[in-house]
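During the second year of the project, the team shifted from modelling isolated chains to modelling whole assemblies. The rationale, set out in the original proposal, was that interfaces cannot be judged from single-chain predictions alone. As a representative example for this report, we include one of the complexes processed in the last quarter. Its constituent sequences, exactly as entered into the pipeline, are reproduced here:
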Amino acid sequence: MKNMRHTALKEHEKTVVYVGDVVIGEGFCVIAGPCSVESEKQTIETAIAVKKAGADMLRGGAFKPRTSPYAFQGLGLKGLKILKKAKEETGLPIVTEVIDPRDVSWVSEYADVLQIGARNMQNFSLLREVGKARRPVLLKRGMNSTIEEWLNCAEYILDGGNRDVILCERGIRTFETYTRNTLDISAVPALKELTHLPVIIDPSHASGKASLVGSLSMASVAAGADGIIVEVHKNPSEAICDREQTLNPDEFSLMMGKIRMLEKFMEGCR
Amino acid sequence: MKNMRHTALKEHEKTVVYVGDVVIGEGFCVIAGPCSVESEKQTIETAIAVKKAGADMLRGGAFKPRTSPYAFQGLGLKGLKILKKAKEETGLPIVTEVIDPRDVSWVSEYADVLQIGARNMQNFSLLREVGKARRPVLLKRGMNSTIEEWLNCAEYILDGGNRDVILCERGIRTFETYTRNTLDISAVPALKELTHLPVIIDPSHASGKASLVGSLSMASVAAGADGIIVEVHKNPSEAICDREQTLNPDEFSLMMGKIRMLEKFMEGCR
Amino acid sequence: MKNMRHTALKEHEKTVVYVGDVVIGEGFCVIAGPCSVESEKQTIETAIAVKKAGADMLRGGAFKPRTSPYAFQGLGLKGLKILKKAKEETGLPIVTEVIDPRDVSWVSEYADVLQIGARNMQNFSLLREVGKARRPVLLKRGMNSTIEEWLNCAEYILDGGNRDVILCERGIRTFETYTRNTLDISAVPALKELTHLPVIIDPSHASGKASLVGSLSMASVAAGADGIIVEVHKNPSEAICDREQTLNPDEFSLMMGKIRMLEKFMEGCR
Amino acid sequence: MKNMRHTALKEHEKTVVYVGDVVIGEGFCVIAGPCSVESEKQTIETAIAVKKAGADMLRGGAFKPRTSPYAFQGLGLKGLKILKKAKEETGLPIVTEVIDPRDVSWVSEYADVLQIGARNMQNFSLLREVGKARRPVLLKRGMNSTIEEWLNCAEYILDGGNRDVILCERGIRTFETYTRNTLDISAVPALKELTHLPVIIDPSHASGKASLVGSLSMASVAAGADGIIVEVHKNPSEAICDREQTLNPDEFSLMMGKIRMLEKFMEGCR
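Output from the structure prediction step:
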C-alpha cells in the first residue's frame, strides 16, 4: 500500500459499528433479505422469515442501479416506506442502497445503514455525501477495484467525519464464467492486516448461484470475516432481480444453523 | 448483445456530432490538452500549442476524480473559467469532465462537450442528468466494463433525449502491468458493427506511457476510429497528474503530421 | 459446462484416491514441504517437522519450471533421490512435479503422486503421458484457466486410463496485486457440483504471503475442500524459491492444530 | 522489466529472420492458411489462393492442442506431408506448430518455421528443444502472460543457441466476451522498446471474428508490427476448427490489397 495516509491504516483499535442492538466487528453479523423491495407483502414476509432464522439486519433495495435503463429501477420512496414497515414488524435494522448524492439526507431517515454499491465505489461525490451522514456506511468493493483503491474510497468517507465504515467484498470480475464474479476470499485476511474496519462478504453476488452460497458463507466465517450479506426471498422464482443467486427461507434457515455453530467454534479457536 | 433494445442499435444512419465547427463522426477528430487545469498560463500556452499543431478541441479537467481524497482534486469553477479563456484565445471548443449530477447544468455553461469519466460510467444518476443536457457527451468506457455494458450506459443518455454521444475507449484493466491499462483496439471495429455512435480512443490513459502514444494513435486511425483524445502539457515534467503519459508540444506536433497524412490515406483507401 | 462428455461428469460415485495409507477424498489431506529440494539436510529436516505437525504427505520439487532460464531449475534426479530418503525417514508419501513427457516413467519410480504444474495444465503431451502412468496425478489449475478447461485437462488423463486425478486450485491471475494470485474459493463448491474428483487448495501460491496461508487454509476446510498443499521450509528466509509464502515449522504446527479441529467440527456438521 | 538479463535486451541491432526468400523484420510479412490441415485438396487449394493474394508464408496445423481430448487432434505426419506438397506447389515456406519435445527434430524436416502455441509458451522442455533446432521459432504469447514472462520464454530459446525467434501477439484473456480474446496492440510498440526481436500479430485468434480481422490487420501495420498470421480457408463454413474467425480467399485478397498499400505508406512515413 504505497502512498496512502489512511486514517484507516493509522488507528490501531478495531472499529466496531453499532446499529441499534446489532454489533458489526464483534461476532458474526448476518444481513439478509431480497435484492429489491417489490411489494409490502413480499418484503414483510421475507423479513419475518429471515428474522426467524436468526438474521441480524434486513437488506432490500429501493433504488436499483441497473445495467439497462429499461430494467426495473426500484420503488424509490415507496420502497423505503415498505422497509420501514418491515423494521417495525421485525425489529431488524435496515440496510439499503443510496445511489445519488442528492438522496443521502432523506434516505438516511429510512435507512439504518447506507449501502454504496460496487458500481458507485468510486463515485466520489456520493462518498463525500455519505461521509457527512450520521449513518454507518456499507461500502461494497468495485468489481474491478484493488484493495488499495477500495481502502482509499473508505478514506473518502472517514475523511468526511463518518467513522462507521463496513467493507463488503462481493466478488471481482475475472475471466471465469461459471460464477458471476470471483469471490476474493483472501481480501478478508488481507484487510485484517491493513485496516481496523470490519469486513463482510456478499456470497450471493460473488457467486451468482444459490447452490454455492452456503459453502462460501461457511468459508467466510472460517476466513475471519465479520459477517455476510445474503439475498433471501420468500419465493426466489418470483424475484424480479437476481433470482438464480437468491435463497429461499428454508435454505437460509438451514445455512444459519451451520453458520452459528461454526461461529461458536471459531470463537473457541482463537 | 443479448437483451438490449438499444436506440443505439436501432438506428441505421451514422451519428455525426457537431461542436461549433468541429465534426465528430466524419474524418478524424483530435482532442488534446492537459490532464488537469493547473493555472491560466499553463492552460493557455498548452491550448495555443495544440491549436498550432492542428488539434480540433481542447481537453482539460477542472474536477478530478482521484483515487485518494488527499490528492489534487482540480480547480473547480476557477478551472472552468480558465478553460473559457483558453477557448476565447484559440477558438478551440472545450471538453471537460463532470462528476456530480448537481453540477451538470452550470458546468454546461463552460463546456462544449461533457466528459463522463471511466469511474463514473455506471453512475446512473449522472448519466440521467447529462441525458437532459444540451451538450454532447463523451462517454468513457469503464476500466472493467464490457462493450455491452458500455452501450447500455450510452442508452441511458440517449433515452434521456440527448442524441450526441461519443464513445471513448481508454483501456481496460488486465493482468499486464507494463502498460497502465490494455487498449482494446478491437472495440473500434466491434462498435462499428454494433452502433451508429462515433468512437474515439484515449491512447494516453490506455498506455500510461508517452512513448507508446504515437504508435497507438496511428493504430487508431488505421482501425477506423473517429478520433483520439490525447494528454499534452507544455511541460509534462511539471504536470500535477499523469506526467508519464503526457506528450510535450513538439512530440504532439510531430505525431499530428503523421496522423493527418494517415487520415488522408485511409480516406482514399475506403 | 457445454460440449463436454466427461468421464469426470458421467460417473456419480465420488473418487477416492489411495496413496499408501493416505486417502484423498475422505477427510482432509494435508500435503506440506518445501517449494524445491535444495539439499538432503533441508529436505529431511523439513519432512520430519511436517510429519510431526501432522502432515499426510511430503511435497518438494526436483524439477522447477521457472520464468527465467537463468533461475534455479531444480536438482533433478539428485532431488528425487533426496525425496526418496525423506520418505524412508518419515514414511510420508512423495508428491513431486514432472514437466517433460520423457521423464514420466522414471520419475514415477520416485514419486507417489505426480504433480502437473499450473504452467503445464494444457501441455497435452504431458497429460497423455501421465494418463498412462500408474501413479495418482495432482493436476493444478492453470492461472488463466476456466473450470471447464481444467476439467477437460483432467479428462485427458482419465481418458488415458488413469482414474486417480486430484484437482488443485492454486489461484488465478487477476488485476489484484496485493496477493500473488486470487484464490478462487468458489471453485471448491463448483467442482463438487460438477465432478466426482477430489479437490484440494494451494493457499501458498494463491496468496504469495505466509501471513494469509492460515486463514485461507481454514476457509478451505469450511468450503468443503478435500485437502491443502502448503509450502513449509525449516528456515523460510533461506529458501531458494517462494520465500515470502513459506511457513516455518512452528507456524505450520500451530495451523495444523486448528485445521484438525475444524476438520472434526465439519464432519459433525454434515 | 526487473531481474531480466536478456540476450534479447542486450543486443542493439534488430533481428531479421530469413526463411528462404522471405524476410521477417523488414517490411510486413503475411502468413496465411487454414487453422488445421484437413485434406490435401483443402490445403493445396487454400495455399494457391493465399499465394495468389500475396501471402509470404503458409500456416497450417498438423498437431492441434485442443481443449477437449475428444476434439480433432490433427493429422500428424500425414498433415506434414500435405504441407510439404503445398510448399512444392506454391513455393510458400511452411509455418506449423510443434507440441511435444520428442517431435521437434523430425517435424523440423517438414517445417520452415516452428510455431510454439499460446498454451505451450511456458512449456520449458519444449522451448529448450526448439532452442536446439535449426529452424526459426514463432513464439506465441500465452493468453495469460505478461510481456516480461513472454520475453523470458524467448530467452529460453535464445539461450539454447537459436537466435531466430519471432514473437506473436495473439490476444490475452480478459473479462470481455464480445471478442474471443483481447488484442493487446500496445505490445507492439512496447516490444519495440524492449527487444530486437520481430513482432507479428494474430488478428484471427485475438478477435475470434472474421469481420474484425481486416481492421485489426490494418491497425497492426500502423502500430509498427512486422507482420501478421491470419487464418484463411478456401471454404470457412466447412473448416473443422475456428470457422468463425477464418477469412475466405476473396476476403483475404481484398484485405491484402489494403495492407500492401498501407505498408508502402508507412515506409514513406518513417
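Residues 17 and 23 of chain D are 6 Å apart (CA to CA). The mean pLDDT of chain D is 95.
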